[in-house]
Every structure is written in C-alpha cells, then in structure tokens.
TrEMBL record:
InterPro entries: Alliinase_C (IPR006948), Alliinase_N_sf (IPR037029), EGF_alliinase (IPR006947), Ethylene_sulfur-biosynth (IPR050478), PyrdxlP-dep_Trfase (IPR015424), PyrdxlP-dep_Trfase_major (IPR015421), PyrdxlP-dep_Trfase_small (IPR015422). SUPFAM superfamilies: PLP-dependent transferases (SSF53383). GO terms for molecular function: carbon-sulfur lyase activity; transaminase activity. This is Alliinase C-terminal domain-containing protein. Signal peptide: none annotated. The keyword Membrane applies. Residues 42-96 form the Alliinase EGF-like domain. PANTHER family: BIFUNCTIONAL ASPARTATE AMINOTRANSFERASE AND GLUTAMATE/ASPARTATE-PREPHENATE AMINOTRANSFERASE-RELATED, TRYPTOPHAN AMINOTRANSFERASE-RELATED PROTEIN 3. Belongs to the alliinase family.
Amino acid sequence: MKKYHYGICLLISIAINIIFSMNPYVGGREKNQEISCRPSLSWSEKAAIEAEAVAAISCSGHGRAFVDGSISYGRTVCECYGCYGGADCSELSSECVADADSGDPVYLEPFWMQHAADTAVVISGWHRMSYNYADDTMMSIELENCIRKLHSIVGNAITEGRYMVFGVGSSQLLSAAVYALSSEISSSPSKVFASKPFYPIYKDQTVFFNSNNFQFKGDTNSWQLNNSTNSTDVIEFVTSPNNPDGELKKPVLRGKTIYDHAYFWPEFTPIPGPSDHDLMIFTLSKLTGHAGTRFGWAIIKNKDVYEKVLKYIYLADMGISKDTQLRVLKLLKVAIEEDGKPFFEFAYNQMRERWERLTFVFSMSKRFSIQKRHPLHCNFFHETRLPSPAYAWVKCEREEDDDCKAVLEAAKIRSSSGSTFGAEDRYTRLSLIKSQDDFELLLQRLTQLVFLENTSIETL
Ligand SMILES: Cc1ncc(COP(=O)(O)O)c(C=O)c1O
C-alpha cells in the first residue's frame, strides 16, 4: 500500500513538472518571456567576459587592474595606488612620501564603480572608422546636446545661442583660445596675462608655442601698477574657481578674456548663477574625474572666434577621437540622471568630508594656515554652502619657513611650490582630489606634523 502511494506521488510530481516546463502560461510565463526577449550576445560576449574578469581582480582595494595593463605569468598586473605595493597592492610602505602634488582627480572612482553597468562602453572593431559623423562634422550632436543639458541642469553656464567646440582636454582649448583671440594684423604681439597665483600651463603653453601673435606678460596686477591699461591687445585668463586657491576670480584688465571654468561645478564651489562670458572653457577631467579620457569643451559667443578655435582643433588633430566622444556621452548621461542630484551629491559629499577633516587638522596649527572659505548661495543645491576646492593653498607662517614645500617635504609630504603658480614659496599647494588612500596618508602625515608642532611648543 505504501509503495503504491509513493508511486502515485512520483507520477503526479513528474506530470506537474512536465506541465510547468511546457506551458509558458502556467507560472513560468514571465521568466520564459524574459529569456526569449533577451538577444543572445555574439561578438561582444568575449570582450564583456574579459572586462569583467579583469575588473574582478581585487588588488586589495589599494589599486586597480585594467584591460590594457601589463601581463605577468598570464595574469593582468595590479597597478597600485601611492604607497601600496606587492603583487596584490596589499603592502604599505611606511616610509613612503604622501603625494599631494598632482591634480589627478581619482577621488570619484568609487562613484563610477557603483555605476559600472550604466557606463561600460562596448566598442566594435568597426565603430565610427570615418574621420566624420554622418552630417560631415567631427563633433557628436548627441554629445553636444547632452553637454548643453548638463549646463542647464547645473545652471553654471548659458549655452543657448552659443557655439561649442570640443578639444583634447581643456589644455588644448586654452592654447586654441589664445590663438583665436590674438591679433594677426597688429605690429606687436597680443599680451597674455593671468592673476597670481595662476595655473602654470597658461604661461608654459604661451611661451612654448612661441608665436609672433602673442606673448605671455605675467601677472595682471603687476602690469596694471606699472602700465596704463590699454585694453586693445590684452588677453586675460580668468580662472574661476582658481587653481591653486579656489577663489572665484574676476578679470583685472579690461581686455579679452578666457574664462577657465575647469572647477566651476557644484562639488567644488557653490554655483551662484550661470556664467555668460565670451569664451568659457570646461573640462571632463575635473567634472567627472576622467582626466585620462582627455576631453574638454569651449562655449563661444562670437562666430569669428568660434571659427578660429575650430580651425585650430582641425589643424592640430582633425577633431576629437570618436571613441572618446562615445565614452564621454555614456558618462555624462549618468551624471545628468535625476537632474544631476546623485552624481553631484556624491562628489560634493566626498569633497566636503575631506575639507572638514583637513580644516580640523589645520585649526590646531599656528605654523601653517590654509585659505579662508566663504559661504555662498548655491543655485544648484538651493542652499548656502562653503566651497570645497580641489586644492588646499597652504601658507607657512613662521618667518624662517620661507620654502613651505621643503618644510612639508621634510615631513614626507609632496606638494606643489608657490613659485610654480607665480607666487611666493611661503605658499604650497596640496591636492585633495586624489584617491582615498592618498588622502588618508596625507592627513596622517599632516596630523603628525601639527602634533609635533604642538608638543614642541609645550616642551619649550
Ligand atoms: C585650471 C585648470 N585648467 C585646465 C586644466 C587642464 O585640464 P585638462 O585635463 O582638461 O587638460 C587644469 C588641470 O589641472 C586646471 O587646473
């Protein structure tokens, strides 16, 4: 009798299984439909597997492995951050120098890792092989529209009725702008200025390109003191917010201006209103942190200036890589999701936290000071906030500490000297946009330095 019951149960169970697996309208409907709707991958699957396999290499959280990284013993090598080493980046070198020198904006890596699925790019072997897009231009209309939308969401620049040109990073557009604004007919070269402390590339590029049409003349204020302001052939870089001190700069001379808005984004500064100048330059590097993608854009009012900037880009590199433009489009589409709130809140919170920790350390020091920050209303976040600049501009207050970079170097902190920015060496710049590991080590070294200052005062 028992055996007979078991047999019936087994038969019923088999029958139910057969019905469920054959009939899509019983229970398994949604699952079956989902499977039948998903196209099977052919050529992209191998690349996706390779990308995911490399991304899965942990590097102990202190480095990254990349698809194009070196291979050792058949395995992609981990590229370790700052002071970490070893095959899996797990070894911290205690004597290592905390590097706060370069403006490498890796601090947003965690955001992009959280959005890996939405920002991954699959590029086929035949993706946009032509120099041009279908409309015979070298710029993606989709990307241009996306950038215009980004500016209108953030409210940091007027783009309606303005021309746009893409460049290989904003660095290229800075020199294209000087070329476009300089006079080709005047007997003397146009004079190029910036206000101290200024981003050194302005001088370096102008000197390097060594043109008959323009010449770097240095600091605006020194020039104004010694010369009557004849504005005709003057080109002034206005960096707002400024690198290195984060100030929202205004022009000093009454000439033509190039507004460098590399840091005019809500993570670094409250946005008081949209910028509406003749020539404004932005960069992906500091907006999303993708410096390696090398992408920037200029927003230009005047048609003749626009055509000259376009000509410069055409002659320099026949337009910007189509692969780059695709990647930038993917990234910016995520940055503007939900009107930019998730992206800018993440980025701002990172910077705010770093500034809070940094100001706490400096508040205990009399030997060092950093720039004062002033609250301002932010139209993007709809509240009054303190700026959270990309760099701390450190001043050594003791008279004998006239080389502040050297003072920090002795405490195993690498910074960028004041003279790099045309300022006194009593100042030095600390980068706050590097990886979390770099920032933690920087903070640790600064805390030790300030602790030593306070203990030595007490012992005196
Ligand atoms: C003020 C300023 N402008 C422009 C740039 C260059 O940026 P990009 O990476 O777009 O060439 C930088 C880079 O640090 C910068 O600080």
